Amino acid sequence: MKKVILSAVLATAAVFAACSGKSTSGVQMGSLSKFDSLSYAFGVNIAAGMNYQMGDIPFDMKAVAKGVEEAALGKSKLDHDKAIETLQEYFMHKRGERAHAIAEKRAAADSARLAQGDSTRVEYPRADEAMFDTEQEREELSYAFGNDIGFNVAQMGTPLQIVWLNKAMADVVEEKAEMDEMAAQQYLQYYFTEKVPAENAAASEKWLAEVEKRSGVQKTETGLLYKVVEAGDMSVKANDARDEVAVHYVGRTREGKVFDASKFENFSKERQEMVRKGNPALFDENGKLKEAEEPVRFALNRVIPGWTEGMQLVGKGGKIILWIPAEMAYGQRGAGRDIGPNEALEFEVELIDVTPYTEPEPAAEEAAE
Asked: Residue 122: how many CB atoms within 10 A of its CB?
């Protein structure tokens, strides 16, 4: 249900942001003193998605805006999980029933007029107040809805100004938006498919140039930067891209954010909390994992090129840091929310074991008839 709500709220904007990863900085309140095209386009796109998929619901837009602001800036007193529960209850159980009741009431009224010889067609408003039992319910649902928007906007890490995002949403509802839906989508497409990739490429190049100057850092002919922390047993190392390795690792963006790790202790706080909530049986009464974490195993020809090359530079038991250029990582496509297009990455890796590739046995010849 959470994904359904998010898709309705963020529409195309969410798609672009998810594909492009984080651009520069995060969300801020901002100021109306200078027009912010990105934030306004986001707001227009969100409001358009609401209109298409939830136009029958008379939201309290002031409560929505408050929910967006407080959740996006980390000031909401309503836990996001509670907001989702509120939205689930309404959309899964109440919305359909109330819409059906409204439709039946209107049909009965139309029939009554026709029976009296009145064929005048009544234009009913798309959003009927009867979609809510009380004004308090309307305000609470609207705030929860804004909370979900604000929470997910903050998670994107896109540099948005909430004041402009909320203004755009209000302008769309009041039919006085300074940017129509098509213009908003075109701007978002430009921002996330052209502007962000170019900015990431420039920032990654600068970052790698600074890393290269650090003590002990070496560079291969492909442009891979690495530092051997512990060489390990070089008599037991990967020599073939088809070899299998067992590793523990931490992956970070150039800004230092952990986007992946093999050990719980290295997860981000948000991910740790998700694991604790979703799998409480894994932890003892002191909050510690009950069992040791197994290393991750994979063949080197099944990972990004930077890993394929880098893991052949250290022996069993060794430790190495890799700084991988975008073209040896996820390139222009990026990977999910945290790794944008043209992003260079850093990995700290401990090589636990190596299993050399062995050619499969040739198939036995068929017995002669």
From this structure: 9
Residue 212: how many other CB atoms lie within 10 Å: 13
Give the Cβ contact number of residue 339 at 10 Å: 24
Of residues 118, 87, 107, the one with CA closest to residue 6 = 87
* Confidence category of residue 23, pLDDT binned at 50, 70, 90: very low
Residue 364 belongs to a domain: no
Same domain, 191 and 219: no
Interatomic CA distance for residues 238 and 308, integer angstroms: 9
**Same domain assignment for residues 156 and 232:** no
Is the pLDDT score of 41 beyond 50?
A: yes
> Among the listed ranges 20-29, 126-135, 147-156, 356-365, which one has the minimum average pLDDT value?
20-29
* Domain that residue 347 falls in: 214-355
Q: Give helix 80-89 / helix 135-156 axis angle, nearest 10°.
A: 130
pTM attached to this predicted model: 0.78
Asked whether the beta carbons of 33 and 167 are under 8 A apart, the reply is no
Q: What does the alpha-carbon distance between residue 265 and residue 249 come to, in Å, rounded to a whole number?
A: 11
Burial (CB count <10 Å: 0-12, 13-18, 19+), residue 15: middle
